[in-house]
Design brief:
Length: about 160
Amino acid sequence: MKGILFGALAGVVLLGATSASLPSQPSSGGLRVGDVLPEMKSLDAEGRASTTESAQRYRLIHFWAAYDATSRAANVVWDHYFAGKAQTAIDYQAISLDTDDAVWSQTISLDQVDQEDQRYIASTERSRYMASAGLLDGLHTYLVDDHGVVVAVDPTPSELANYH
């Protein structure tokens, strides 16, 4: 019995040590750290023209769509993360790439996310935004500085602590 427990414990320690020493894999496709994210224009919750420019030091821009379960779930996670922060040096903006604004409106209502942080890109502009933001191979989240330079690609909430 001791041998089995020792073997299991040794396996867990070995697995933890090797996974901790592996470098994180870069995202496939999309922009890379150091690239400049082009100015993103979209519509705000009331349908007015809006941009991602802000006075904050950093901006987390999360691209999502209702048809992409992973990005939609991440949209809810990011919304809750920023709702729990009173003040932060990071401004959050979610940009939907849904092809239908009715689907977008219904999704943000169902998901109960803060509509002020949500933006919709018109279907006529969708292809251009996807190409310029490196989203042709998948949706990403970019942390950019006040100059639009990408400082992190697909960061986790715990990784944002380095930027507060």
